[in-house]
Design a protein that fits this description.
Blueprint (H helix, E strand, L loop, with lengths): L1 H12 L7 H5 L12 H7 L4 E5 L2 E8 L11 E7 L5 E9 L3 H12 L3 E2 L6 E6 L2 E9 L4 E9 L15
Antiparallel strand pairs: 1-2, 2-3, 3-4, 4-8, 5-6, 6-7, 7-8
């Protein structure tokens, strides 16, 4: 009986395995799935409004939803799409003063990061087809800390030289 209780006690003392980036974000985020169309994401997020510049289209939600356990006040969440109009990224905006808290949280969750070459304020955590990025961005009027998730696992479309204009 003592042996059984000792084993049970040790089991509860054993640290739990931390979730990987893929386990947490591999299927999608905020109720969406990677590869969803713009219209599908818009249906899942009725508060989203469509923005575009030329052929590049994204959906934007402005809310105060706490993300990564860090509070936000009426900040943007961008849902980005590839050239085939499939969801492949999400960027969550925070006030710049949250940058240190976000960095600490991401290091705690995912460990070591790499610095993006040529950008001292951009840090990345890579895991297979997912890339998490934390960047401090200044748009001239204000600074934001932006946490983004990029998904690179979508099936590549068929292409040939002729269809690409070569």
């Amino acid at each position: 009986m003592r042996l059984f209780l000792s084993i049970i006690f040790l089991f509860f003392l054993s640290p739990l395995k931390a979730a990987t980036i893929t386990e947490l974000f591999g299927d999608g985020v905020f109720g969406t799935q990677w590869g969803d169309s713009i219209s599908t994401v818009a249906q899942k997020l009725p508060k989203a409004h469509k923005e575009s510049v030329g052929d590049i289209t994204w959906l934007e939600v402005i809310d105060s939803k706490e993300v990564l356990g860090v509070s936000r006040k009426m900040q943007k969440i961008h849902f980005s799409f590839d050239a085939e109009k499939r969801l492949n990224g999400v960027a969550v905006y925070y006030d710049s003063e949250k940058h240190g808290v976000l960095l600490n949280k991401l290091i705690t969750l995912f460990g070591e990061y790499s610095q993006v070459t040529g950008n001292k304020t951009a840090l990345q955590w890579k895991n297979g087809v997912l890339v998490l990025t934390l960047v401090l961005s200044n748009d001239g009027f204000s600074a934001n800390s932006i946490f983004s998730i990029g998904y690179y696992g979508l099936e590549k479309p068929d292409a040939d030289k002729k269809s690409l204009g070569f």
